[in-house]
Every structure is written in structure tokens, then in C-alpha cells.
Amino acid sequence: MALRAPLGPAVNITRQTLLPASRTLPNGVPASMGLNRNLPSMAGHDGHSHGHGSERSDLPPAWAGKTGAFSSVTRVAAYPTTKINFRALHTTPARPAGSSIHPLSGGVNHMASPESQTASTGVPDFSAYKASNSGRNRTLSYFMVGSLGVLAASGAKSTVTDLLSGMAASADVLALAKIEVEMSAIPEGKNLIVKWRGKPVFIRHRTADEIEEANAVDIKTLRDPQTDEERTKKPEWLVMLGVCTHLGCVPIGEAGDYGGWFCPCHGSHYDISGRVRRGPAPLNLEVPAYDFNEEEEKIIVG
């Protein structure tokens, strides 16, 4: 690189890359094996470069121009010789043929043909796949949706039916759902105990005196107020479950202080209508669902 000093001619400066020196001699020359190779002696007889044979101090040292184990590097700052042209980039698509530029919007005129706009934007044309008759496709779609709905409803119905049938009672349980008792087999003033759904059922053919006694009771004095008419469908027939409402024991018939039933477990007394009169039982004996078959003279429990 050429530099011009304020006064005097231009001076060329050359930069040298030197190897690291281990020490420096008194005259300023670095002592190095690679640098001092094949160079003459730099020191004179007096050791200060003032004797005979020493190099001149007004000249550059001989080692400054030598090339050996080091290289010479010259750095030059060069300026561009051509003019730089800047180009602005934008994303506006190319204007298709047959279209014009709107003077205000600066964009493509949308009144151009669709074919030219499609070609410019690169969007594929699916017009060849468009159905010629839209009504036919709509009918087919409705048919498919309706068919799938019917199949789904049928499958759901079958699933629910199978689930409910699996949860239903078995045949032996259904056989015990109802029992029939012949009324002629129970004489007046007697009890009959039958088994229904694993529970004892008391059936009593009451006399006229027992019916009158049951109706004479003041329901206001009862723990679980019920009239005799509410507990019977026919006054002469009393049907109820033989399970004590205290802890589920089976009371004894024709016993107790009221001529009805008595539970020996905890001392609950029931009258001739099955209503609790004394003891820890909170409720009257339960009356199950039953009916009469007049033609066959049977009582159907259940």
C-alpha cells in the first residue's frame, strides 16, 4: 500500500513476518537460528559496532531484505472499480396477459380472464372434476346418510336388547314371581304360611268377630296409623308378609296380647289386622301385591 508523508516523497512499506526471537543483541539485531543463518558478523572488535568490519548504521540491516525461514506479506486496500446497482425485490405476481394495472390500487385488474389469473397464481384447475348434475349427487348423499342412520339405530337396538335380557331374571326366579293359593284350603279362623320370593306370607281366613275387632281400634292410638280397610281387599281375607319390621324375624301366629302375631325376638305385638301395638317394631307388617281369582277361587300373590 502506497502512503504519502506530509513532507517528502512517498515511501513503500513492506511488512515482514518474523519467527519468535530468543534474545536481542546489543546492536538491536534479534539472535535467532533461522534469522542469522548465512549472515556476516554484525559486531566489531569493540562489541558496539563501531570497529572495522561492522555494517553502516545509516543503511538498513542486511537481514531486513533477506528471505529465509520467514515470508514477506504486502497488504493493499483496493476499492471497487465498478458501480454497485441496487435492485428492489417484491412479491407481486407477474401480470398475466390480457390484464391491466389499476391506476389506483397498483395491482392486477381482476376483470382479466380466469384462465390467465390461474396461470399466473399457480392454482390448479379442478373444473374437469366438477359434477355435471349436482342434484344426483345430493340424492346419493342423502341415501347414504339415511342408510347409515338406519344401520346404526338397528345396531343400538340390538345392543340394548341383549343387555336388558342379560340383566333380566332367570326362569326359576320368574317361576316364583307369582304363587296361587286355593281359598278352600284355608278354613275360617285359620292361618296358612306360604313361601313367596324367599319370604314367608301369612294368609288368614278371619271370622266376623275378628273383623269387628279390627275395625273397632282407634287409629289415632296406633304407631303406624292404618285402617283395616286399607290393609285388606276383602275383610275376611288378610294377606301380609310374615317378616317383623324391627329386625326381620318371623312372628308367631295367634299369639301376643292382641290375638294376632307376636315376635319373640324383641317382644313386638301385632293385632288381628297385622298392625303393631307394642314393642320396638316401628311399622305394621307389610302387605304385598295380591289379587283374587273368583272363577277358580284362588288368591294370587305377586
UniProtKB/TrEMBL annotation:
Residues 31-63 are annotated as: Disordered. Residues 45-58 have a biased composition (Basic and acidic residues). It is found in: Membrane. Its main location: membrane. One of its GO terms (cellular component) is membrane. The keyword RNA-binding does not apply. Keywords: 2Fe-2S, Disulfide bond, Iron, Iron-sulfur, Membrane, Metal-binding, Transmembrane, Transmembrane helix. The keyword Metal-binding applies. Its cofactor is [2Fe-2S] cluster. Residues 211-299 form the Rieske domain. This is Cytochrome b-c1 complex subunit Rieske, mitochondrial. It comes from Kockovaella imperatae.
